[in-house]
């Protein structure tokens, strides 16, 4: 009997589980269909929105095209009207110019006829005047020729004086340039003889190129100035190298001191500053930074090293010398 009840109960439970599974499946199916309907409705709404947007864009494009056609037509009409007005204005100007030209031609023809009549009258009187003037010219020609010869001689003398002055000035200029080149050569030789000249390879090559560009037979002011500028750059580079060498010697001394004091970590900033100062194209600021780093290193090394706490040493207690003293303990130490 109990077995039959247990079987009935198991079947009842299985049916209940199946019913629940079916209900879950139905709910899931309804939910899926609802989502599908919602998705379809959303797609329809989006399609309708796209259709309306396309219609609106098409309507706007048509309106814009219509407005553009109207503007083009209005502009064409305005241009045609402007051309017509310009043609009328040109015709009016041409007619006025033609009328003025005809009037001017008539006036000039009248003036020419009057001038011819006057010239004919003056010609007769001019013949008599020329005959009289010819006699005067024959008399004064000799005097005029002598004055002209004297004037030409004076001009030739002045020209010779100017040529001589110009030649002397050119010779003086050449002498000055030759003296300047000699001074620059002496300075160049002195710079090449300095101890660190080999290290300034780029500046030295620039100075050599500037010197080779000079022709002693035709010295040029611009090339002389370029040679002088190159020597200035070479001297500045040599001065910088000498300063770096002095700072390096100081750095070596401080580094040895740091090793002695077991504080080599304090030289890291100084090594970085030294590398920047030795780099190509280093300026005055890099040298000053190197020098400042050395000063800070010296000050850091001059400070005493920090020490840890020292152990306390107890002073020895005095021992009792009199065993019968009541203040002495059994171990012979004062109480």
In the predicted model, the low-confidence regions spanning at least 5 consecutive residues are 308-316
Total number of beta strands: 0
Helix content: over 70%
What is the 3D form?
flat
Q: How many strands, what sense, and barrel or not for the largest sheet?
A: none
Helix/strand class: mainly alpha
The Rg value, from CA coordinates, equals 59 Å
Order of helices and strands: HHHHH
CA(first)-CA(last) distance: 101 Å
Q: Return the average pLDDT rounded to an integer.
A: 79
- Beta-strand content: under 5%
Instruction: Enumerate how many helices there are, as a single number.
Output: 5
Task: Describe the overall structure.
- There is one protein chain.
- The chain has about 325 residues and is an all-alpha fold.
- It has a domain at about 195-300.
- About 80% of the residues lie in helices and about 0% in strands.
- The chain has helices spanning about 1-190, 200-210, 220-260, 270-280, 285-300.
- Helix 1 crosses helix 3 (about 220-260) and helix 3 runs antiparallel to helix 4.
- It is flat.
Descriptive labels:
81% helix, flat, 335 residues, mainly alpha
List the helices and strands and how they pair.
Layout: H1 2-192, H2 201-212, H3 221-260, H4 268-278, H5 284-302
Helix pairs in contact: 1-3, 2-3, 3-4, 3-5, 4-5
